[in-house]
Write a structure and sequence with these properties.
- The chain is about 50% helix and about 15% strand.
- It contains 12 helices and 8 strands.
- α2 crosses α4.
- The protein is globular, with a radius of gyration of 20 Å.
């Protein structure tokens, strides 16, 4: 069986731009696979918000991310790219993160050049470290991987994105994540600066317009990331159902918004498990 890193690289070659969708848990990952996607993403914000009920301000740790990673990779063979924020400290913590996540079945990690007390890349007043410090982060991640196909994705939040991208490629990054770009020309400049794939983060309600695949393709972007689209929709649906039950005293008026029991069972292949139990009891 091929490694997760090999599968991610094959997906990048097979589909341009490759659509990578966020999955905040194993069931979401299974739904994404059924929808036909070839790769998944575990967002640091997704772990903080949905697993821990915390803001995306660098307050998670490797253990938090590792737990969600193992659950997702156990549920699907789709390659999973994992957000490790700034790497939780220094070269040794980056080394451990890469080794543990590779062992857990991840296809690669994304590491960024924000300062330690990081924040969402689409929020004001974010701070970045010097290029040399981020180069050291990338080198530490590259040196730690056992599988040479395990992907190291270098994210830059800096205004001099093309220059940063060149430095990170030279340090061994496999993909450049150009965060919070506001025009297609911004992406073109990054694409022209490097010879490795460039990723566009199409997060909703942020600074980057929600470009189409055709627009990104024309700009040379190789990967289109939708990190929290499904989880945002699920959160809004949950809010509406909770409100209806509380205010109306019944769920009757929102049942048509729910996934049915049979639909759930189809995703989980539930009946196969039930038949196995019946055969053991017979």
């Amino acid at each position: 069986m091929t490694t997760a890193g090999v599968r991610l690289r094959a997906a990048i070659e097979a589909e341009r731009p490759l659509q990578v969708v966020g999955a905040v848990n194993a069931y979401a990952a299974m739904q994404a696979e059924r929808a036909g996607f070839r790769a998944l993403y575990l967002s640091g914000a997704g772990v903080a918000n949905h697993s821990l009920g915390l803001p995306d301000l660098g307050v998670t740790n490797l253990g938090d991310v590792l737990t969600d990673t193992m659950r997702i990779t156990a549920a699907t063979d789709l390659p999973l790219l994992v957000d490790i924020d700034t790497g939780w400290g220094h070269a040794f913590t980056i080394d451990r993160a890469v080794r543990e996540l590779e062992r857990a079945g991840a296809a690669g990690v994304q590491i960024e050049d924000q300062a330690g007390a990081k924040r969402c890349g689409h929020r004001p007043n974010k701070q970045v470290v010097g290029a040399a410090e981020m180069v050291d982060r990338v080198r530490a991640a590259v040196a730690a991987r056992r599988d040479p196909d395990f992907a190291i994705v270098a994210r830059t939040d800096a205004p001099d994105a093309p220059e940063r991208a060149r430095a990170y490629e030279a340090a061994g990054a496999d993909v450049i994540f150009a965060e919070a770009q506001t025009t297609l020309d911004d992406y073109r400049r990054v694409v022209e600066a490097v010879s490795i794939p460039v990723l566009a983060n199409l997060t909703e309600f942020g600074l980057t317009p929600l470009y189409t695949l055709d627009e990104l393709r024309e700009a040379g972007v190789a990967i289109a990331l939708y990190p929290l689209s499904a989880s945002r929709a699920a959160a809004r649906a949950a809010e509406q159902v909770y409100t209806a039950i509380r205010t109306q005293g019944t769920q009757r008026n929102v049942v048509d918004q729910m996934q049915t029991r049979d639909e759930l069972y189809e995703v989980l292949d539930y009946l196969r498990f039930e038949r196995a139990i019946d055969e053991l009891d017979s």
